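Work Package 4 report. The design task specified in the project plan requires that, given a folded chain encoded as structure tokens, an amino acid be chosen for each position. We show below one input record used in the internal validation round.
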């Protein structure tokens, strides 16, 4: 992928770097991941995560699932992830 050619595959709009919040609802648990670095389309608002970010989210989801947490709020920063847990 060429980072210089950075256009939305859906609408052809230009993507800009930003941060977003992703929510994963697993039924038994809800995981909120904040400060997710993403390329966000200026036109349609579609959020594009890079492979590494997607993997980190996958990891967090599996971890929360394994520990059967009901609610998990995680801030995914570029340096490290800080964690706030809420057990209801
Ligand atoms: Zn778009």
């Amino acid at each position: 992928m060429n980072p210089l050619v950075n256009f939305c595959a859906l609408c052809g709009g230009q993507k800009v770097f930003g941060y977003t919040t992703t929510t994963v609802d697993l039924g038994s648990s809800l995981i909120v991941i904040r400060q997710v670095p993403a390329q966000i389309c200026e036109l349609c608002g579609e959020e594009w995560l890079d492979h590494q970010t997607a993997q980190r989210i996958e990891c967090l989801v599996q971890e929360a699932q394994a520990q059967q947490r009901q609610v998990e709020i995680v801030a995914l920063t570029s340096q490290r992830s800080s964690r706030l847990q809420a057990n209801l």
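Residues 8, 10-11, 13, 41, 43-44, 46 surround zinc ion (CB under 6 Å). Validation will be extended to a larger panel in the next phase.
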